[in-house]
């Protein structure tokens, strides 16, 4: 019984730590970046768009997904299977590495370039 209780407590603590890490990462994303990514999404596709060669709400190709969302890619596959927060997190990483260049047309429509 004690082992089961200890295991349950360990699972709960790991889950809480994962949730805290996720919310911390989202909190670090500036309003500018988040709003920019949401604007880009509004001109791109559904969060669950599975059309080859671009997937998800930010229309990521495989190289982008592997570069900026590697853990998500290996856990869930293409971005159309990722939770929205994971797509935004990968998009923010891509923005910090490359600016709005991965989305040149929609970034212009959103007034970001």
Any overview of this molecule?
The N and C termini lie far apart (60 Å). The protein has six helices and no strands. The protein has one domain (30-109): Orthogonal Bundle (Lysozyme). The chain has 113 residues and is mainly α. It is globular, with a radius of gyration of 17 Å. Helices cover 66% and strands 0% of the residues. It has helices spanning 2-28, 31-43, 62-68, 70-76, 84-98, 104-109.
Q: How many strands appear in the DSSP assignment?
A: 0
**Can you give the helix content as a percent range?**
55-70%
Uncertain runs with pLDDT below 50, 5 residues or more?
Answer: 4-13
Name the average pLDDT. Answer: 83
Compute the number of helices.
Answer: 6
CATH class: Mainly Alpha
Radius of gyration: 17 Å
Structural class: mainly alpha
Could you name the CATH topology? Lysozyme
Order of helices and strands: HHHHHH
Principal-axis shape: globular
Number of domains: 1
CATH-derived architecture: Orthogonal Bundle
What is the CA-CA span between the terminal residues?
A: 60 Å
How is the main sheet built? none
The fraction of residues in strands falls at: under 5%
What descriptors fit this protein?
113 residues, 6 helices, 66% helix
């Amino acid at each position: 019984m004690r082992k089961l209780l200890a295991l349950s407590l360990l699972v709960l603590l790991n889950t809480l730590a994962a949730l805290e890490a996720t919310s911390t990462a989202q909190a670090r994303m500036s309003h500018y970046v988040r709003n920019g990514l949401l604007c880009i999404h509004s001109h791109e596709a559904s969060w669950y768009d599975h059309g080859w060669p671009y997937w998800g709400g930010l229309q990521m190709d495989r190289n982008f997904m592997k570069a900026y969302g590697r853990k998500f890619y290996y856990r869930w596959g293409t971005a159309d299977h990722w939770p929205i927060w994971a797509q935004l997190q990968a998009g923010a990483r891509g923005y910090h590495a490359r600016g709005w260049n991965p989305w040149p047309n929609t970034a212009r429509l959103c007034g970001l370039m």
